Amino acid sequence: MVDARPDVPESEPPTRFAPEPLRRKSGTARPLRSAAAYLARTFGPGEVGPGGPGSLRLRGVAVLSGTLASLVIIVRLFVPQTVGMAEQGAGQQLLCSLGVRNLKPWGYTDLTSFIHPSWVPHQYYGEACGFTGSGEPVYSSQLLLLWLGKWLTPVLAWGPGLDTRAVGIVCCVVFGALIAGLVAALPGRTPFRVLIAALVTLVTADGVFADFFVSPYSEPGALLGTLALAVALLRYWNGRRPRWASVLMVVLAAAFTVSAMPQMASWLPAVTLALLWLPSGARRRASSARRRWQAFVMPAAAVVAIAGVAWAFLAVEPKRATEVNLYNTVFASILPNSPDPVTDLKWLGLDRSFVTAVGSTMDSINSAVYNPEYPQFGEQINRGKIAAFFATHPERLIGLGERGISALLTPELSDAGSYMADSGQGPGVKERRVPVVLGLYTAMKAAPVALPGLHLLTLLLGFAVAARRKSGIGRLAVVMVLGCWVQFWVVLIFEGQPDIHRQMIVAGFMTALCVPLLVALVSILASKSTQPHSQPHVV
Amino acid sequence: MPRSLAKRAGWGAAALLLAGVLSGCNQTLPGAPAGNPAVGECHLIVSPEQFDAVSEPSPPVACTEPHTAQTYKVTHVPAPLSGQGTRPGQQQLKALTARLCDVASLRTYLGAGERDGTTGLAIAGYAPSRDDWERGARAIRCDVLLAADDGTPRTTTLDFKGVLAGPDSAALRLCYRQELADGRLSDDGVDVPCTEPHTAEDISAWFNLESSVATPAARNARCLPYALQFLGVDALPAGIRPRPIIRTVNGAQTVRCAVAPVQSNVQSSPGTITGTLAPAGGQKRG
Known about the structure:
The complex is a heterodimer of chains A (539) and B (286). Chain A is mainly alpha-helical and 539 residues long. Chain A has helices at 31-43, 56-78, 92-95, 108-113, 142-155, 164-185, 190-205, 207-210, 219-238, 244-258, 267-276, 280-285, 289-315, 319-334, 341-348, 375-380, 383-392, 396-408, 436-444, 450-468, 472-494, 500-503, 505-525, and strands at residues 17-18, 100-102, 118-121, 162-163, 528-529. In chain A, the strands form two sheets. Chain A has a three-stranded antiparallel β-sheet. In chain A, strands 1-5 form a two-stranded antiparallel ribbon. In chain A, helix 7 runs antiparallel to helix 23 and helix 9 (219-238) runs antiparallel to helix 21 (472-494). Chain B folds into two domains: 42-164, no CATH class; 173-279, no CATH class. Chain B is 23% helix and 24% strand. Chain B has six helices and 14 strands. In chain B, the strands form four sheets. In chain B, strands 5, 8, 9, 10, 11 and 12 form a six-stranded antiparallel β-sheet that branches. Chain B has a four-stranded antiparallel β-sheet with strand order 1-2-4-3. The N and C termini of chain B lie far apart (78 Å). The interface between A and B is large, with 49 and 43 residues.
């Protein structure tokens, strides 16, 4: 649990925000400005000072908010019947390391039509457990949540193995704890904190995200890790200077996040920026050697530690997974959208005979793996070469980005059912009771430019709040958008097209978090500081 | 305990826990070396992942114990693939095992005659593990798996070697259960193993339904030689007659020759049988 503590040092006067809009012209209030004014009056950050965040009352509100958020997601997932995300065949590669086997139909269609939460104890041997096609071990920080779920399963009388419903409950509890931490770490008045926490809960409750909690996938680790990182960063920025406890919290949250899925290593640049982007006051105050160590060396050491975890995680990523991703990038992404595939093959150092495999996956009948020249692929293609290809063919990024936006705005895994086989629901039926993000993204599909628009607006307002109000929320908005962009392009460039909708889930979640962040930013900007501008403002 | 110390201990525990998770809590055992399989070994294969794995090193079980699969053939990776220092990819190996683990070898192992129809059998081919490959192993293991209609493995205590020539062959033989309508059995029937109640038994002879075999008599005449071959006789025994099954797949009609007890065609409640009519197998009237 995250403790609430003052956002500003006791020696500094508290920053006060009046409930009136900052730049309101008399008699010319526009609807947007009126809404911002209403937000500021009702939920505005208000007074921020030593008496607020650390108070016993706020701690109570944080715990209550976290408990409520946890219960909301539990009810949403388990009442009136269990919903989750049906697996598409890859779930076993992670859970098998816990010594369990899924009780599921043999056929693929039956498998994906419903969720099959029961996993029974099973002894695996050799390559039967691990990445599909090679048996290499698969690691993920999600194993921590799965391990807790395995411990909880017999307690809930769901059998001796592992039930993904128990994992769902673990995820809900962790989510509640993170919401409590968010309420404690946010600046401002209680209604403001609760509003932002409620919006984050609403976003997470959408089936495109919450359903993953009851699944064998590693996405819950990535989603909860992203949230944990946001809370840890807010805490980190709240202090006058980096403190080892807050830095350690960021390191742990980041380590958990980047080791959830290979694509999550893309968080590294954003986390680096976040750790080194300290309030100017903190730098000024770093006069003594100890302070300087705290202000610069400790964040730098944290960056090195997180980079080490990310590097170690990528080093143990199954080689087969890397090969599959590179294959998909070349044959399912670059070549099918190329005006001249033969020229591209030549640039990549591949024989022109591979042109018959354009548009294929490894499992296709016309897969390149059946080409006698296939060993050439392993010799010539690596991530560096793919990056170099796009660097020298920047025009390809336009089409790639368009396909990525389309995939991000289509977050539902269409062939994965949400219900259990005995639910009375038909095969493959999706559950859409909280379609806030799905609805927003569906609407945005009409004008996909709205997606980068949302990002840019969040980024600009984030910069504005970070610069003018010295607020951690502003920095968080900037870091979230930049992290989302890096993740978006890493997925597009290095992980190919066939499974792109699932791979874009985390980027979709980070985009959805821009909505509560925007509400917070607008609310802060629409409020007026009553403090002289010469003094530092910490929100 | 001072609060700061407790806090540090908590962080330390969290870090240790995370490190433990990341370092792996894999409960998978290495299993038996996959480089030297032997024909006749029985295995317990229960999951699709195990079935589809490139190598399958679970320790053999005694064939008198419940098992789902048995090795019917061991062969070797041919050149030039065998010359590779690192094991080829899954797709290449699966294409190779699909070619090497042939049905003809399986039928020979099962002791199947030309007219023995089978059901519920699947073939799985396994290559050496990566480590065994790098140690020079190139053996390919071909297993026959006993499976239900949907592919789910069925356990058995049968030894599959020569089983179709022996008295326990009914579990592997293909039979048909026809429905009775208006006092007559339907032309088609549901595929069932002959250990389940059925009305006809397949004799592994198929032909297209064309004008020359449009009448039941013509179909019976066409199937008769195959029925005699199946039964190992020169003339049909009393009480047994051909009963062709008509199967429609994607609009194309095929005649599957089968044999059945005569009386089961005319009773208002047709008599079903369990077991097989094959000379070496026993049958019971239902």
